[in-house]
Amino acid sequence: MSAVTETSTDVDRPPAIPRPWTAARITGHVFIVLWLMLGVAMVGYLVNAWNPDLFEKYAPYYLSGLLVTIKLVAISIVLGALLSIPIAYARMSKNKVLNALAYAYVYFFRGTPLLAQTFLIYYGLGSFRPQLEAVGLWTFFRDAWYCAVFAFSLNTAAYQAEILRGAIESVPKGQWEGAESLGLHKYQILRKIVLPQALIVALRPYGNEIILMIKGSAIVAIITVYDLMGETRRAYSRTFDFQTYLWAALIYLSMVETLRHGIEWIERRITRHLKR
To answer: Which terminus of the chain is more exposed, N or C, with fewer CB under 10 A?
Structure first.
């Protein structure tokens, strides 16, 4: 009986879809080979140019800068997430004033470079020292670290608000109507029915936003914050050894790949019920 079943399964199985060698596929394989060659060349350069004394001297600085980068991104993401909730609510509100203010906020912070926003906060607000001292805010805005956290939080809040709004609006209206027909309160509907579905949709965009924040955090080195890139610039200014930047590139790549695989693992875990 089992042999008959296996034979029937083999017969009913659809044939494999042929994959012809199109120009796009050939180009893709060529680029993959080039990237592999570049990676091998970079590893070969690091092996040949390896300087144990240099690594021993600056490794603690790189570790310190890495911790600063992780701390900056983590705090900014959390503060941005908290700020994105009322912004997303205002973007979905029928109140034209709230909607317009939220739209203007999102439009500005998504339409201007993060570097320009950081400069406006660090250098621009620094021009108003007497006014800031009068209201007791000069201690905050004179510190490059606080300015970086403030700028990054405002920037990511705009992106996270749009991610949250799009994820909530992607849930079919029938979910709301069905839950309301059962007598559930709007808060219960949002918390127990809509948000769990919306967060599945928003997971990858949130992951991409964190990755962009990690890579974008390198700009704070320009305003004297000694994050990973800041320590890299300092190491290069003292050694003029190009491998110091390769170390930083590998560390950034490791962070991004670790985060990417972590998000994929979470996505597989929370979407097991959707797979057949």
So the answer is: C
Element (H, E) at 164: helix 144-170
Which residue matches tokens 């390896």? Answer: 50
Residue 10's pLDDT is 53
The pTM for the full model equals 0.82
49 has a pLDDT exceeding 80: no
User: Nearest CA to 248 among 62, 37, 25, 28?
Assistant: 62
**Contact of 153 with 83, CB cutoff 8 Å:** yes
Contacts of 122 (CB under 8 A, 6+ apart): 141, 144, 147, 148, 151, 223
Q: Angle at the Cα of 162 (from 160 to 167), degrees rounded to 5?
A: 95
Q: How confident is the model at residue 146 (pLDDT cuts 50, 70, 90)?
A: very high
Q: How far is CA 5 from CA 14, 111, 221, 263, in A?
A: 16, 60, 65, 39
Residues 148/79, Cβ–Cβ less than 8 Å:
no
Pairwise CA distance, residues 219 & 116, whole Å: 10
Q: How many Cα atoms within 13 Å fall on the side-chain side of residue 150?
A: 16
Decide if 228 contacts 59 (C-beta within 8 A): no
Phi, psi of 270 (to 5 degrees): -85, -5
How crowded is the C-beta side of 118, counted as CA atoms within 13 Å? 22
Count, residues in the chain: 276
Quote the CA–CA distance of 247 and 234 in Å, as a whole number: 13
